[in-house]
């Protein structure tokens, strides 16, 4: 396909679309992660933090954050002519969680982004995907100045099942984020195969 037109003699290709969510606590880097790999200018629904939100938005550890996602972030990656990946970044604050069910519909899998300085902030996202049997990968966003821990230590702290991948990443780095997304797709495929085998036995 060239500039929206099919090449002469070739039938138009209807791409298969995959949907992956990027979730986690407030200020963990979800918007940054979507923007790092999106081939289009990401759709962002960010608003300035206000005094009214100060009592409910805990900015300890992310004092430099001045905006927050109030609906979603959206990005796109064309993997092949016939395969497109859509990324949806979820809002991090509790008061916007009513949007999660809509965003999660039809999702192949998810990334739960974690910050070791505020690890408890991703508990709710882990619980959400576990309860709904949506396969997910935990991506530990390695912030500058934050303590680095082995992935097994993070797994134990989050009480994850042994099969849930935990990967270290830099949400600002395109190649790093691509590796995380590859892990999500591989884990989702293995998860689906395991469920099919369970049903047939």
Task: Explain what this protein looks like in three dimensions.
With 201 residues, the chain is α/β, with parallel strands linked by helices. 28% of the residues lie in helices and 26% in strands. The chain has helices at residues 30-37, 100-104, 123-131, 151-158, 174-200; strands at 16-24, 43-48, 67-80, 83-89, 109-114, 136-141, 166-169. Strands 2-3-4-1-5-6-7 form a seven-stranded mixed sheet, sandwiched between helices. The longest helix has 27 residues, at 174-200.
Question: Secondary-structure map with pairings?
Answer:
Elements: E1 16-24, H1 30-37, E2 43-48, E3 67-80, E4 83-89, H2 100-104, E5 109-114, H3 123-131, E6 136-141, H4 151-158, E7 166-169, H5 174-200
Parallel strand pairs: 1-4, 1-5, 5-6, 6-7
Antiparallel strand pairs: 2-3, 3-4
Structural class of the secondary elements?
alpha/beta
SSE order: EHEEEHEHEHEH
Radius of gyration: 18 Å
Low-confidence stretches: 1-5
Q: What is the strand tally?
A: 7
Q: Quote the distance from N terminus to C terminus.
A: 44 Å
The biggest sheet, with number of strands, parallel, antiparallel or mixed sense and barrel status, is: 7 strands, mixed
**Apparent shape:** globular
* Sheet with most strands: strand arrangement: 2-3-4-1-5-6-7
Q: What proportion of the residues is helical, as a percent range?
A: 25-40%
Number of helices: 5
> What is the typical, i.e. mean, pLDDT?
84
DSSP strand (E) fraction?
25-35%
């Amino acid at each position: 396909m060239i500039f929206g037109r099919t090449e002469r003699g070739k039938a138009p290709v209807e791409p298969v679309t995959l949907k992956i969510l990027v979730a986690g606590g407030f200020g963990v880097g979800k918007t940054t992660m979507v923007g790092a790999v999106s081939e289009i200018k990401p759709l962002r629904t960010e608003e300035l933090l206000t005094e009214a939100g100060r009592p409910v938005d805990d900015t300890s550890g992310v004092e430099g954050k001045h905006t927050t996602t109030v609906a979603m972030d959206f990005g796109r990656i064309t993997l092949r002519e016939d395969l497109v990946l859509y990324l949806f970044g979820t809002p991090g604050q509790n008061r916007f969680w009513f949007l999660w069910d809509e965003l999660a519909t039809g999702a192949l899998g998810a990334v739960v982004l974690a910050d070791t300085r505020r690890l408890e902030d991703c508990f709710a996202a882990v619980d959400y995907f576990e309860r709904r049997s949506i396969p997910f990968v935990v991506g530990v966003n390695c912030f500058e100045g934050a303590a680095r821990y082995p992935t097994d230590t993070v797994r134990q702290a989050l009480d994850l099942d042994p099969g849930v991948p935990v990967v270290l990443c830099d949400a600002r780095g395109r190649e790093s984020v691509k590796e995380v997304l590859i892990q999500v797709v591989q884990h989702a495929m293995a998860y689906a195969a395991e469920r099919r085998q369970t049903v047939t036995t």
